[in-house]
Amino acid sequence: MKRRNLLIALSLLAGANTWAEDLPKDTLKVVDIEEVVVIGSPKENRKLREQPLAATILSQKDMQAAQVTSMKSLTGVVPNLYIPDYGSRITSAVYIRGIGSRINTPAVGLYVDNMPYIDKSAFDFNYSDVERIDVLRGPQATLYGRNTMGGLIKVYTKSPFNYQGTDVRLSAATYNTYNASLTHYHRASEKFAFSAGGFYEYDGGFFENSTTGKKADQGNSVGGRLRGIYLPTANLKIDLNVSYEYDDQGGYPYYYTGAVNGTEETFSEGIGKISANQESRYRRNMLNSGMNVEYQAKHFILSSVTGYQYLNDRMFLDQDFIAKDYFNLTQKQRSNMISEELVMKSKPGKNWQWTTGAFGFYQSLNTDAPVTFNQEGVADIIEGNTNSIFKNLKVQYPNMPTLGLKINNPSLYIASDFDTPTLSGALYHQSTFNNLLVKGLSFTAGLRLDYEKLKIKYNSVNTTVNYDFNLNMTMGGRTIMDLTDNVKAPSSLTGEMSNDYLQWLPKFALQYEWKPGNNVYATASRGYRSGGYNVQAFSDLAQKAMKNGMKDALLKSEVFAKAASMIEEYWKSEVVNPEAETYYKPEYTWNYEVGSHLTLWNGKLQADLAAFYMDTKDQQIAKFVESGLGRMIVNAGKSRSIGAEASVRTNLTDAFSINLNYGYTYATFTDYTTNEKTSNPAYKDKGGLKDVSYDGNYVPFVPKHTFSLGGQYIFRLSNRYWLDEVQLNADYTGAGRIYWTEQNTASQPFYGTLNGRIAFAKGPGQIAFWVKNALDKQYDTFYFESMNRGFEQKGRPMQIGVDVRCRF
Q: Which residues are registered as beta bridge partners of 309?
């Protein structure tokens, strides 16, 4: 009996992570991934296709066929999921159903082996040991809390209990792309198994910088993973997982597209080129560890998931993105995050199924993000903009003296150091009542109380240099005052702020199942994304503090003492209000959804359908700060998303299968009014600002359509042939139209890429030849505007490669 219980524990607790290539091949039925690959989740009582939610499940076989090698390659494979591949590994912008985030806190959550990844900087990691990916669309806040208002991505790695041996993979492709991985899985006994592996990746880069003559996106990564599973008794499992990854990559290959908003072009020679004069790079050290402890009692299952993540990265960015030597940003982040979750749930198969849990995490995050103005930036931006203000004042007040500013510093260093610790805790419960009133009818109700405390301590005191400047005053062509001795104006901006959030996150669902694998459902759920502080916006505040310091220094000068009243009148102090200018509010949404999971034609076809309506309040939108020295989040009033999704899998024969995924999202602003600067004198009394309404405009970075159509044909050969099988895969994946700005003045029309793969297998070995973007489709994967200039990152061109794999 004990041995029998142990085998049950192995299947239910350790998870039967069967290799996708070894799945049954002699059936016309669509393989139910959740039956063949049993993955233990501490919260769910039922398989995803039996729950009232929209989800996509990708096995290792699916990932291989669709060439999913990272999170960013999921676009189109999952309906209404868009992850633009741009920038570097720190930029993992995930959008689902019109909800997403380019910077700061994510709107779509990520769990790896049941451990939460809180920081979006950690989302883009190596997938060499991944067994399965689940993508849940719509708010998952009742069970998973903050920052899952758009959805949730769950990644599972392979279990050493269910595969023993060594897996070796080698790959090479055009554009000098190489990678290798080796993982060994060993089951020492019925109670203990472990795996250990490592990988190395080298990317030669796709895009050349015309100024430096080098590839802008060249880089490499190295890392590994250790996992051990111990079953001390028949009903207890301890699962420990540790991974490390180091990345060193170039990035931000942004092509300059020219001036925007009617401004005059001043750098025409750089149009259509990547021309940044300094090399931008991103380096990241990342350590993740998680321990899952699961105990199966007679009537319930108790789980504990403890996680720790260490992240230390550095981003150097030539942030003007052109050959001019204006300014650059160096951002260093150091984060330590520890999380703990306790979950108790009922055993499967009961009429009353329930889950109760408590979750908490603490993250310490230090960000050092100084901005350096180089010589051209000092002259053209700080000095030039200030003198432009003086000229405009002279136009408005012809009788005033003419002022002229000269900065003597060859460069200016604006220091910025921030500590932003986050503390979060939650209690939640969800119950499902099955066979309610009639057989097959179920009702689900859940509620989560989520608390979060966010603090920031900022320090922009410049202790290394004072700002030296001269200022002269002339009238009628005659100098009436001239400050010939340099005036020193120190800049100082220090303080701290904090905010608390307390959220109630309910969920309600009604579902009817008339036979296994066939159901319809309707849900209503609330989600939210936490607020925060825009640390990159402090560079603008520091500039204001610097200008105010310059003015104060003039007022204290003997030369200008007599002109104090004139200086006060013509040189207005700029208000510095850190909380008002850096804080952004939480984002909230209600999602209403109807859908169905269908299994038809005697299991030959699986279809998942959904339609949704989402109301979002205080939507968080990323934009560049006024000076172009960084990005910030602003709250954009309200938006609405309406859409539908469809996924179809079918086996037409035992050799030929087709899958189709389509998503439609119509996401528009319903209440979004902001302001922008104008030189129109009619707005002089309003500080030169006019109101602009974006009501009815499309939400940026949300494709109207996502689409993928894939097919697979397997030639299974008899023993008289040297090969066991030949597998052909082809898929067409696309997304669009995508609007890049709130003004909807720039967009990417619908585009698609054709991909293919042919694999030859013999015993434990396989060699595959593949092509991505076979038609060499030209498209933009990212576009933005900064300092009245437009920039774009292009999609990757056609790439051809070969993979070699051996398992022994």
A: 288, 337
Distance between CA atoms of residues 604 and 284, nearest Å: 45
Are residues 367 and 420 in contact, defined by beta-carbon separation less than 8 angstroms? yes
| E strand segments, 266-374 | 281-296, 300-317, 327-346, 352-368, 371-373
DSSP run (H or E) holding 599? strand 587-600
The gap from C-alpha 699 to its chain's centroid, in whole angstroms, comes to 17
Least confident of 55-64, 407-416, 797-806: 407-416
State how beta strands 725-736 and 751-762 pair: antiparallel
Q: What is the dihedral of CA 67, 70, 71, 77, to 10 degrees?
A: 0
Distance CA 792, CA 782 (A): 6
Rounded CA separation 393/398 (Å):
8
Q: Supply the pTM of this predicted model.
A: 0.90
* Amino acid, res. 1: M
Q: Parallel, antiparallel, or unpaired for β 108-112 and 151-157?
A: parallel
Amino acid 628: pLDDT: 62
Helix (H) or strand (E) holding 395: helix 384-396
Q: With bands split at pLDDT 50, 70 and 90, how would you rate the model's confidence at 23?
A: very low
Q: How far apart are CA 219 and CA 723, in angstroms?
A: 37
* Nearest to 81, CA basis, from 639, 799, 702, 690: 702
| Strands of 118-274, DSSP E | 130-137, 151-157, 165-173, 177-187, 192-203, 219-233, 236-250, 255-259
Q: Give CA–CA dist 373/383, Å, rounded.
A: 11
Measured distance between the N- and C-terminal CA atoms of the chain, rounded to whole angstroms: 33
In the DSSP assignment, the letter for residue 78 is B
Query: Which residue's entry shows tokens 């990932």?
Result: 63
The single-letter DSSP state of residue 151 is E
Task: Check: CB of residue 367 under 8 Å from CB of residue 384.
Answer: no
Distance in angstroms (rounded) separating the CA atoms of residues 667 and 230: 48
The sheet with strand 54-59 has its strands ordered as 54-59, 130-137, 151-157, 108-112, 115-116
Relative to beta strand 441-459, strand 494-515 is antiparallel
The percentage of the chain sitting over the pLDDT mark of 70, rounded to a whole number, equals 84
* Residue 793: burial class (beta carbons within 10 Å; 0-12, 13-18, 19+): buried
Residue in the structure block whose two tokens are 């890049």 = 740
Label residues 604-639 b or e (16+ Cβ within 10 Å = b). bbbbbbbbbebebbbbbbbbbbebbbbbbbbbbbbb
Q: Return the residue matching tokens 């597209």.
A: 257
745 pLDDT more than 60:
yes
Which tokens is 643 given?
């859409």
- Whole-number Å distance between alpha carbons of 39 and 113: 9
